[in-house]
From TrEMBL:
UniProt topology in membrane: Multi-pass membrane protein
UniProt-listed PANTHER family: LIPID PHOSPHATE PHOSPHATASE, PHOSPHOLIPID PHOSPHATASE-RELATED PROTEIN TYPE 2
Molecular function in Gene Ontology: phosphatidate phosphatase activity
Top-rank taxon: Eukaryota
Residues covered by the Phosphatidic acid phosphatase type 2/haloperoxidase domain: 127-277
Name this polypeptide is given: Phospholipid phosphatase related 2b
Compartment(s) where it occurs, according to its Swiss-Prot or TrEMBL record: Membrane
CDD domains, sorted: PAP2_wunen (cd03384)
GO biological process assignments: phospholipid dephosphorylation; phospholipid metabolic process; signal transduction
GO cellular component: plasma membrane
Length: 297
């Protein structure tokens, strides 16, 4: 047992870990609020792009509302929420019971005022960082869609421009007229929000986060040598499948999927912050205070 039992450094107040927790809550609330404004309000109007007359790349048939998709939002969002949660629960509970053979301390003193079961603490931290990343990914995708205004493959089908009135004669003609569309305004606005694909971004974020935190790190038990790579492969394939469905249903172009899938890792994307292995200030503090029992022994 290589535990430090020295008294905590005097510079740290007993509850600074808890203050940090409240600070994280405030950041989280702001992120959720911003995601809400992007998702459910018209606070950020979409950039109106023009189009080329008769453009075949944007004249694909309208696939119907999102709920009719083979990968409907309800399914995608449920999986994106459930898969990492279930995976981490199984993984953590398994490794907890495997490790507890050594009969190490089950409760770690984080500060004078807070006691945490290490299992519970790891799970809460994993899910907290995960949901923060999920909301930042949503914001990233929504902001990209609104700023670029890149159109979906079915854009012209929902836009229904009157080519005669617009004077379209050849496909080389560019129409920048803002009110060129005569179709349902709601559908037209939705068809302007295509780049990057939010579904692809969320699916890949979910898969990569789970792979990085569960498959790559964390649990090291004998029985999982083969099942871990399999799980990782299945998760990434599922995310890729969402992208394939979006493209075959003419809801997105390939570059929308590509941009969405690289979003969590792109240098410009904020979600990058939450991708490395979960490490919260709460744990660093507890380590500093000398109460932490080394897990490596
Ligand atoms: C398109 O515009 C032309 C000329 O303005 C008009 O005669 C025609 O009825 C319009 N077509 C539709 C489908 O609105």
């Amino acid at each position: 047992l290589s535990a430090w039992t020295d008294s905590p450094p005097p510079s740290l107040t007993p509850c600074s870990g808890l203050n940090m927790f409240y600070f994280q809550l405030v950041i989280m609330a702001g992120t959720v609020l911003l995601a809400y404004y992007f998702e459910y309000t018209d606070t950020f109007p979409v950039h109106v792009q023009g189009f080329f007359c008769f453009d075949k790349a944007y004249s694909k048939p309208y696939p119907g509302p999102e709920d009719n998709s083979k990968a409907p939002p309800v399914l995608v969002y449920s999986l994106v929420t459930a898969i990492p949660t279930v995976t981490i629960l199984i993984g953590e509970v398994t490794s907890f019971f495997v490790k507890s053979d050594g009969a190490q301390e089950k409760t770690i003193v984080t500060a004078d005022c807070c006691y945490f079961n290490p299992l519970l603490r790891r799970i809460v931290r994993f899910l907290g960082v995960y949901s923060f990343g999920l909301f930042t990914t949503t914001i990233f995708a929504n902001a990209g869609q609104v700023v670029t205004g890149n159109q979906a493959p079915h854009f012209l089908t929902t836009c229904k421009p009157n080519y005669t009135a617009l004077g379209c004669q050849s496909p080389l003609q560019y129409i920048s007229e803002r009110r060129a569309c005569s179709g349902n305004p709601y559908l037209v606005t939705s068809a302007r929000k295509s780049f990057p694909s939010k579904d692809a971004a969320l699916s890949f974020y979910s898969a990569i986060y789970t792979v990085v935190n569960v498959c790559d790190a964390g649990i090291r038990t004998k029985g999982t040598r083969l099942s871990k790579p399999t799980l990782c492969l299945v998760l990434l394939s599922l995310a890729a499948l969402v992208g394939v469905v979006r493209v075959t249903e003419h809801r997105n172009h390939w570059n929308d999927i590509l941009a969405g899938s690289t979003a969590p890792r792109s240098p410009a994307g904020i979600p990058l912050l939450s991708l490395p292995r979960v490490e919260s200030p709460l744990e660093k503090l507890s380590g500093l205070q000398g109460y932490r029992i080394s897990e490596i022994t």
